[in-house]
């Protein structure tokens, strides 16, 4: 079984049984393939008699969403496994435990999180997660700071950059987020009623200029080791626990890309409340909760990041008066811009979100789509003038009010 091939459920059971200290000998194991993503097989192996279980995640050599005509490197499995191990050291308890990595099979064996729910699903169903902002801001602050030139030896960081060169998955991001939505690309996918909105994006050269600036940062600004795909579908959650999963897009890039991804997905759910809230009062309350969470994510991140800078910073020049404030301002502005790009692509690009796409009523879905586009485009346009997280709250509030007029 050492050479690469897509695993069967029987083979997944055989591998799972060999992991020490998980399953009892002589008792039956059950397996089912549960992957619903675009790039991998995911097997859930359990022992009903004991309740023990684990997950086997195997990279496929192509994108499932397109097929074998879109080949992908299997090295992303190594990148994911190594990223999870680094994240576990820097942010203990906030990622699943990795039991084993098999490079021949492009396979990672890890902790089962079936007692959690995917955050996107939880938010759609009206879940409230009081620890989320605290947990995700801790994850972001520690993983970004301690893999940056601020928090680690600069020469050691350069060696780490080499380990996380991830060109094929970065190309997916470069195309699907920073290029395709702004031109008549065959990769785009949108409801026909949005064609005028899509064409407006294609012809908006002022918006393109801002996206080009952000794309340049994604291409060149190796600030820290990013998760690279930190949306609410990559977070398992309960009211008491947060676990970040799926860092196969990990690479060295601009910190604001990860922070912006989290915020964008909260705002996409905010737009989707056109359907998911029962009435106007419930919609207002839910949107207040979501914007409060956005605010808490940023403020929690900023305060923790600044504290790490003061207590654990390794770069003498970074202690120059005024530098930290300037750095954090630029980081906030990057967060705005990247959040906007993430929102736009989820409406007119190749891969959408259930928060909006699962709205059954065409009229309501259209309203949510246009609200998401309005917020996203405003964040992109105003990214370089952003001064506080309140500016983002105001943009979202204003877009809702404009949609009512």
Structural commentary:
This protein has 405 residues and is of the alpha+beta class. Helices cover 52% and strands 13% of the residues. The chain has 14 helices and twelve strands. The strands form four sheets. Strands 1-2-3-7-6 form a five-stranded antiparallel sheet, with helices on both faces. Strands 8-10-11 form a three-stranded antiparallel sheet. A two-stranded antiparallel sheet has the order 4-5. The radius of gyration is 21 Å and the shape is globular. It starts with 8 loop residues before the first helix and ends with a helix. The mean pLDDT is 96.
Would you spell out the secondary-structure blueprint of this structure?
Blueprint: H1 9-17, E1 30-33, E2 40-47, E3 52-59, E4 62-63, E5 67-71, H2 75-90, E6 98-102, E7 107-111, E8 117-118, H3 119-124, H4 132-145, H5 154-163, H6 167-176, H7 195-202, H8 205-220, E9 224-226, E10 235-238, E11 241-244, E12 251-253, H9 255-276, H10 280-312, H11 323-348, H12 354-357, H13 362-381, H14 389-404
Antiparallel strand pairs: 1-2, 2-3, 3-7, 4-5, 6-7, 8-10, 9-12, 10-11
Helix pairs in contact: 4-10, 9-10, 9-11, 9-13, 10-14, 11-13, 13-14
In short:
This protein has 14 helices and twelve strands. The chain has 405 residues and is α+β, with helices and mostly antiparallel strands. The strands form four sheets. It has a five-stranded antiparallel sheet with strand order 1-2-3-7-6, with helices on both faces.
């Amino acid at each position: 079984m050492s050479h690469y091939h897509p695993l069967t459920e029987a083979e997944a059971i055989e591998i799972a049984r060999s992991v020490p200290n998980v399953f009892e000998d002589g008792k039956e194991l059950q397996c089912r393939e549960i992957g619903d993503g675009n790039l991998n097989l995911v097997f859930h192996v359990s022992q009903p008699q004991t309740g023990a279980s684990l997950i086997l995640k195997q990279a496929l050599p192509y994108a499932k969403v397109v097929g074998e005509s879109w080949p992908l490197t299997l090295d992303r499995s190594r990148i994911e496994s190594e990223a999870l191990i680094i994240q576990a050291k820097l942010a203990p308890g906030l990622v699943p435990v990795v039991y084993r990595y098999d490079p021949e099979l492009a396979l990672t064996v890890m902790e089962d999180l079936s007692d959690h729910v995917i955050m996107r699903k939880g938010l759609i169903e009206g879940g409230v997660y009081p620890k989320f902002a605290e947990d995700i801001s801790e994850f972001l602050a520690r993983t970004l700071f301690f893999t940056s030139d601020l928090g680690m030896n600069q020469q050691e960081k350069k060696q780490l950059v080499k380990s996380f060169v991830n060109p094929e998955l970065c190309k997916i991001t470069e195309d699907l987020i920073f290029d395709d939505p702004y031109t008549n690309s065959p990769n785009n996918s949108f409801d026909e009623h949005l064609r005028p909105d899509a064409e407006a994006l294609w012809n908006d050269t002022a918006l393109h200029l801002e996206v080009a600036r952000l794309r340049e940062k994604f291409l060149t600004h190796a600030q820290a080791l990013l998760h690279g795909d930190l949306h609410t579908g990559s977070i398992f959650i309960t009211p008491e626990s947060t676990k970040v999963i799926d860092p196969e897009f990990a690479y060295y890039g601009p910190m604001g890309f990860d922070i912006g991804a989290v915020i964008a997905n909260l705002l996409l759910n905010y737009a989707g409340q056109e359907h998911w809230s029962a009435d106007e009062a419930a919609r207002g309350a839910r949107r207040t909760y979501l914007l409060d969470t956005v605010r808490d994510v940023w403020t929690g991140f900023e305060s923790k990041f600044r504290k790490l800078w003061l207590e654990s910073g390794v770069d003498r020049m970074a202690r120059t008066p005024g530098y930290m404030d300037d750095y954090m301002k630029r980081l906030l502005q990057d967060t705005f811009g990247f959040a906007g790009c993430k929102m736009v692509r989820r409406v007119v690009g190749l891969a959408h979100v259930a928060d909006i796409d699962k709205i059954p009523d065409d009229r309501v879905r259209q309203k949510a789509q246009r609200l998401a586009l309005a917020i996203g485009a405003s964040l992109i346009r105003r990214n370089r003038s952003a001064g506080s997280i309140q500016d983002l709250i105001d943009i979202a509030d204003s877009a809702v009010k404009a949609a009512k007029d």
